[in-house]
Amino acid sequence: MSRAFNFSAGPAMLPEAVLEQAKAEILDWQGSGMSVMEMSHRSKEFKSIAEQAEADLRDLLKIPNNYKVLFLQGGASSQFAMIPMNLLHGNNEADYFNTGVWSKKAIAEAKRYCQVNLPVDSTSNKFTTVSDTWQLNPNAAYVHYTPNETINGLEFHTIPNVGDKPLIADMSSTILSRPLDISKYGLIYAGAQKNIGPAGLTIVIIREDLADSVIPNTPTMLTYKTHIDSGSMYNTPPTYAWYIAGLVFKWIKDLGGLIEMGKRNQRKAELLYTTIDNSNFYKNPVASAYRSWMNVPFTLKNPELDKSFLAEAKEASLFTLSGHRSVGGMRASIYNAMPEEGVQALIDFMIDFEKRKG
Ligand SMILES: *Cc1c(COP(=O)(O)O)cnc(C)c1O
Asked: Which of 2, 203, 279, 301 lies 20 to 30 Å (CA to CA) from residue 165?
């Protein structure tokens, strides 16, 4: 069986070279006589894997020294609670941009801890664009936004200016897709299963001075300081996922780093959006300035053809193209590990399908 092009939103494709290396090392990691899965997280072998992964991530993102990198569990969804618990700093208000399904989840969780103000709310345009201006709340402890809405296919291509408020970003589906200026952020977080590695690992990059106080009764495991002080080894970290993430970081470095990654991703996205815009059969509703490079939702002119589109795509080894259950239609997730030939194969299929059924 050969590998398909998998357009899943997450867990998503991993680079083949990474899987090959993991396969070669699975029984005996570099002469250690053990699989990485079997190693103590406190062994010198695993320590070297963990430190190398962090060093490579720091190198890729040029992470300043006053930021800590945490390798946690619990998914991006746990961060929805950890952020207010750790970053309100005695305050009772926070600003959240509401630009799609994932923003809404973050907002719902934050409301359990504080008053939430929405300087940006894209509900009225069905999450297809973002207002040009926004009024921040001077009393807000921080501003949270979702740079890439994985389900709605809406992405910010510039960093919102929030003055000196700490800017917090859910980067789950866009981290490492292009260069990023970490110094503009107070904290960024990402579940690994889109652009980093296997599910089970969550990466948090936090400006260290923000981690100094929590709301009363915050559990030890939900306190950033716990993980900062222990090098993410307060308890057993997700060791195998951490190792695979390290291989992915090396893979990105080897192909030229985030500038090259960004070029590839922009080109893939442009090819697909051009195909959609040139047809009267496929449609993407997002304003062109906010179209995602990572997740491309589209609908067919006649939704009755959805089923045969998906079935025939699968025959052509193009997998997992159905849209999120909340929005329907199709969605092609084209993260870092999706090669351009996968996008081209999808485009060829779409053009042929339209010719036959349009
Ligand atoms: C996938 C995703 C999440 C949820 O991540 P989990 O790791 O499953 O909790 C949150 N935010 C965004 C933007 C996502 O794409």
From this structure: 203
Domain with CATH 3.40.640.10 in the chain: 17-254
CA atoms 15, 180, 136, 68: torsion sign: positive
Ligand 1: does its nearest atom lie under 6 Å from the Cβ of 102? yes
Chain segment 137-182, per-residue pLDDT in tens: 999 999 999 999 999 999 999 999 999 999 999 999 999 999 999 9
CB atoms within 10 A of CB 72: 22
Exposure of 226 in the CB half-sphere (CA atoms within 13 A): 14
* Model pLDDT, residue 1: 60
Topology of 17-254 in CATH? Aspartate Aminotransferase; domain 2 (3.40.640)
Closest listed residue to residue 300, CA positions, set 352, 247, 354: 354
- CA of residue 355 to ligand 1 center, whole Å: 36
Decide: 191 in ligand 1 pocket, CB within 6 A: yes
Nearest-CA residue for atom 10 of ligand 1: 76
CA 145 / ligand 1 centre spacing (Å) = 13
Q: Active-site residue numbers?
A: 102, 170, 194
Q: What is the CATH number of domain 257-357?
A: 3.90.1150.10
- Nearest alpha carbon, ligand 1 atom 2: 172
Q: What is the CA 205 to chain-centroid distance, rounded?
A: 13
**Tens of pLDDT, residues 61-106:** 999 999 999 999 999 999 999 999 999 999 999 999 999 999 999 9
pTM of the model: 0.98
